[in-house]
Design a protein that fits this description.
This protein is mostly helical. The protein has a domain at about 70-150. Helices cover about 55% and strands about 5% of the residues. The protein has five helices and four strands. The chain has helices at about 45-65, 75-85, 85-105, 110-130, 135-150; strands spanning about 1-5, 5, 20, 30. The strands form two sheets. A two-stranded antiparallel sheet has the order 1-2. Helix 2 (about 75-85) packs antiparallel against helix 3 (about 85-105), helix 3 runs antiparallel to helix 4 (about 110-130) and helix 3 (about 85-105) packs across helix 5 (about 135-150). The longest helix has 23 residues, at about 45-65.
């Protein structure tokens, strides 16, 4: 190391080593910043993306375990009956709860997870109001959820 133009003595006995990683395909050792293996061309970016997805799934699992979505459907149904809401107004309220949960945990809750919850709630709604859980209702529910997600 140089200090003010003169070489400064390194007081530590150990030499610094560059961070390295081993290619899973060929075993070649290289700097951790490399995106492709210099030896075989293995793409580390795919691994990074895969790892991010796994981490995202783990975060979602922990969120659902520790702080699951709580849609007060019984209360919504009771309010709807008390106030004379139409059946589809109940779906609007349910999707509002799902969208708000996703917005609150935007960096963890995925559209796929919200859609899954929406389909489960739709099944309950169809049973409650003696409706068919058909393609039209499923698409309606997903469009409704997409609309609620967009509202800030």
């Amino acid at each position: 190391m140089f200090y003010k133009g003169t070489k400064k003595e390194n007081k530590s006995n150990s030499e610094g080593a560059a961070p390295i990683k081993e290619c899973p395909s060929c075993g070649f050792m290289q700097h951790t910043r490399k995106v492709k293996c210099e030896s075989c061309g293995h793409d580390f970016e795919e691994e990074r993306i895969k790892q991010q997805k796994e981490e995202q799934q783990q975060k979602l699992y922990l969120l659902v375990r520790d702080n699951p979505i709580n849609i007060p459907t019984d209360k919504i149904y009771a309010i709807a009956e008390e106030r004379g809401w139409k059946e589809y107004a109940v779906l609007h309220k349910i999707t509002e709860h799902i969208a708000n949960y996703q917005k609150k945990y935007f960096n963890i809750v995925t559209d796929d997870y919200s859609n899954k919850i929406a389909m489960e709630e739709l099944q309950k709604w169809c049973s409650k109001y003696s409706k068919k859980n058909n393609k039209w209702h499923r698409e309606f529910m997903l469009r409704l959820l997409d609309t609620k997600r967009e509202v800030k």
